[in-house]
Write a structure and sequence with these properties.
Elements: H1 2-19, H2 32-35, H3 39-46, H4 56-68, H5 70-78, H6 90-100, H7 104-118
Helix pairs in contact: 5-6
């Protein structure tokens, strides 16, 4: 009879553990598909400079042209160093912040200048 009580209390302990599972303390993972695309590609798509379907090598060429644009370079110099965008590697941070500071009209003009350079 004593053994039955031990088994019951052991079984109850298991049930209570199952009712209160440990919380997962790890940070939630980002969507794996989002990480498969380089940050420069996401930056250009976000600002409407390329289509989401553009290949990664072509997107990199466009990003290099954007970085070489005199207007973007001028804005990049003005970017405050205190501002930090999350999830963007330092290499692309200044260009991303310069694009973020541009108006829709400036972005459209930049898009036209880049397309002229492609031809």
């Amino acid at each position: 009879m004593h053994e039955i009580r031990l088994l019951r209390s052991f079984g109850e302990g298991q049930n209570s553990a199952m009712k209160h599972p440990k919380q997962n303390k790890r940070a939630p993972q980002a969507h794996p598909g989002a990480l498969a695309v380089p940050s420069y590609h996401r930056i250009l798509v976000k600002h409407g400079l390329i289509e989401k379907t553009l290949s990664i090598p072509d997107a990199y060429e466009v990003f290099l042209k954007v970085g070489a644009d005199p207007e973007v370079q001028k804005l990049r110099r003005k970017v405050a160093r205190g501002n930090i965008m999350k999830h963007v590697p330092a290499l692309y941070l200044a260009t991303a912040m310069a694009l973020q500071g541009m108006t829709k009209q400036e972005l459209e003009a930049l898009k036209l200048r880049i397309e002229e350079k492609r031809v």
